[in-house]
Amino acid sequence: MPTETDTKKPDDQFVPKGALAFFVLMLLGFGLIWLGMYWLTLHRQLGL
Amino acid sequence: MASSSLPPQERVSRIEKQALWIATLFTALTIALIAYSVFALHASVPTCMPNMPVFKHGSIIKHGDKNYEVDFLARMWRFEPSKVVVPVGSTLDVAVTSKDVTHGFQILGTDVNLMALPFVLTTGHVHFDKPGIYHIVCHEYCGAAHQNMNALIEVSNQVDDISAEGLPSLDAAHALADAKGCLACHSTDGTVTVGPSFKGLWGQTSQLADGNTRMVDASFIKSMILHPEATPIKGFDPVMPAQALTDDEIDQLTTYIQELQ
Amino acid sequence: MQPSLRAIILTELLVPLALLVFGAYHGVLQVLYRAGAIRATSFGGIDYYQGLTAHGVINAIVLTTMFAVALGHALVSQELESPLSIFGAGLSLGLMLIGAVMAAAMIFLGKATVLYTFYPPLKAHPIFYLGLALFIVGSWIALFTWIPVYLRWRKSHPGQKTPLAVVGMFATFIIWQMATLPVAYEVLVMLLPWSLGWTPGVNVVLSRTLFWFFGHPLVYFWLLPIYVLYYTMLPRLAGGKLFSDFAGRLSFMAFIVLSCPLGLHHQFADPGIPASWKAVQTVLTLMVAIPSMLTAFTLAASLEHAAHQRGGSGLFGWWKALPYFSHENWLFPYLFCGLVIFLFGGITGIINASYNMNSVIHNTAWIPAHFHLTVAGPVFLGILGMSLFLITGLLNKPVAAIPTALAVPYIWMIGTFTFSTGLFIGGLRGEPRRTNLGLTYLNPASPSYRPDWWISTHIGAIGGVIMGFAILLYFVVLIRSLLAPARVNVAPFTIPLSEAYHDENVASVRNFTPWVTVAVVLCVAAYYVPMRDIIRSKYQPAPAYSPGSAVPLANVR
Hints:
heterotrimer, A: 0% strand, B: Immunoglobulin-like, elongated, disordered N terminus
């Protein structure tokens, strides 16, 4: 099958800003859930 | 099909590097927060305590005012002790080991969550500043009656010292029943677990799985110990293992059961 | 494709799917036991723990391994444009089948009710251990058949990048090779002689450590074939290209390095392992999250590119443009729903690995909630979808009932989210895993009754039933497809793989050797001190017990 790179460099027009936005939101969400469990751990250990 | 011939020298796109940095930052933050809880807040996990002597029976030990140690023996299928009562404000060091297979030991609502391995010691530490019932659960599959295996700690403001139940008695016949594994499946207080309770068993009419009946007397007890597979009992799974006990041992157990009417 | 290879691949896909009928059946049964809908030691002649053993071995060992081998055969032969040794592939299949039959027979006879982790001193029948060993050896042979083909290809294509799908399958099986050596030792040298009565006891700490050395990379063995589908098939299914070829290669190489030196995070609660080394492996575990995060970004970027081709735009609006219900690209939701599920599987895995945070969730119902969002999420859906794709493709059958086929991954996703919600909540409230709750904790007549576990177990049960329903629909599609008449005048079957949008040429990811070398060094570095401590501590050998009795087996007549 023909490949893109046989011709010229692929256009650099496409910048996945939406993917980056999703990625940042994903990690923020992960962070919140993780912090919730971090708090629960310290609560059970120290009675905070 | 993906391109596999040598492409022009293309470098990794900037946005990908950004994503990689953000991911690394996230990971670094989690490591930093864990490190903080360990070094500043003294959080820990069970560790290796090599060549520590391991106890053979559960016990409770007072180290000072409201400062106790409880040695829990995990065994198929109970904890010894099965219940501990302590005053509010107590600090407990728990030590746990197993008599037989791998068990779990979690004091629910606290951070004590341990694995009990045979011949290996593990420890935990908990402070109780609120009254209540704290359940202890075995959470590692340890055989047929795993779901029966639990204990509890009662934290009470009605007591000023520690007490416990479910510790082994020194009675010789009871010790024999324990050592031979009878008490794993037969309780002595009337509770039906894997097998019928010894309490009140003597003189009962036993319903066999094949429809016949037998009276629980000395000869039936002897045949159940030596050949349990010959007479499965209705309503119970036929899992009792045959054991090669001596006549003297069988007599002791028979007397024991007779005494538990 | 060689007709014999096609037959081998089809067998490797169909046999586990047939076993899955029972594996899934007992999954549904388990949630009913756990909710107290069944309050007995057994149902339908199968004991709870026996069924649990079958569920784990069939679903998490047999299905996943045979699928990985089949996918590898298909992709390696296609992408390297070479036939494979039929003797090797056939020997591999033969050993896997014999091993699986031996293990399954012992499980169904009730002689191996030890769960898929088979922790001693609970002892199974020797044929169970031997069967597992043969199964694993069979899976090794697959890699051995691919290596000569790969080496020949590299020689005859100098300077060319190895196709990404091949890199991914090789990474999968390189990891597997490293991971299985310690467990093969545990099974063949420690457990098998002990189960035959030749040795009086087994070192429990050592056997657990060897098992979990294997047990963590096992999950990457499960995941990486699916990552191959994500990197090489998903972008094209969505209508676009893989955003970065380099990201795929880098991820696979990073997994080779970081899959193995992490097993201690499954032993946080164990005695016998120094806490400092548990901490070292915690740091390594959190680092292995990075290639998965990179994958998430790259796949999102690829999907965004595809969405743009389909007319999507905006910062978030483009998600709407993806082919969620396309008949032609029915495989897309199997992969996409797996990714959605994996978001939650991933973060809960990171939580489990966070050192002291483990004490909140170890051995509670939280754990199966987590892994039903990973192995029973992206991995299982990928296996179901790709198996259907390969089976129908290789047999020239159409996929029957496509609307039903499309519904399966969505219903499965609803099911797993419901199931895991119930078990996450239950786990935080102390519900244990691996426990027949219905007999005691969920039995009002029992002194151990826990009415506060009613709601979480019932949510889990609803989720489990929905999952069972999704599998039922899948089997309807599979069987109807198998029964449909073959299509005629069809082009030879190939697996359509994506092109790369950024086709970078980065030298460091062009060769396995340096990465494998670092992996081995890291494993030794991460495990040397703990293993040395275990061996020096001279733990007393533990005698064998059968699950049904508290009397040691040595004492039983």
